[in-house]
Fold this protein.
Amino acid sequence: MEQVFSQLSKIKQIEPSESFYLKIDQRVRGLETVSYLWVSVAAGILMAIFSIEFFITLEKNQNASLTQVIIKTNNLLYNE
Amino acid sequence: MTFEVIYQTHHKMVLNLALHYVQQLEDAEEITQDVFIKVHSQLKLFRKESSLKTWIYRITINQALDFIKSRQAKKNSIFQRLFSLSDLQPPLYPVNFNHPGVDMEQKEACAKIFSAINKLPDQQKTAIILLKIEQKTQQETAEIMGISVKALESIFYRAKIKLSQLLNR
């Protein structure tokens, strides 16, 4: 076994390339900045929520005015 | 300490340690990148219970072992799909020995040794790599592995027996 371990101890250390740090730095920066994709997805979701809210409010207002008209007519018929 | 300083101090150690696990430069570089991404994101959580070097050693070992497991799982699923009816065992990752730190004349012998080391359980493999390739002391190795020196001695003893059996097969 000593011969095996002696062979293992002779393995040389290798030097990483100079450009290697740049690759890691790019990946780190990529994690720190929010991608355009996520920003546009978030903006899209917000827009959809606001539009739905707008249409619901519009529909409610229309229904409210219709109800008022119906109530007036009903009252008149009832009183007669 | 800035991230760049940490990188400059430890990148050689991380790359070489990863190389001993995967024996291929491209895969070792991938592991090294993942290690430093983890170091960068978890630096604030580092509790200084151990030294920074020991902490980075642990991250590298875990990252390398996870990398091997994921590659092996991929290899197994492809192999099972192709040979689902046969009793053949899928090849163990890494299949090709391409360690750039080994001299040409020793390549064949080292390939055989690493092929046996790759078959050892994770803790035994780590003990051999740290003690016999990285030339760490028993105290340092035990600290990196998070075990007592006694436990390390026992793991190393079992690793030596298993390795000897595998090499004499």
In short: The longest helix of chain B spans residues 52-82. The domain at 103-169 of chain B is CATH 1.10.10.10 (Arc Repressor Mutant, subunit A). Chain B has a mean pLDDT of 88. Residues 127 and 169 of chain B are 22 Å apart (CA to CA).
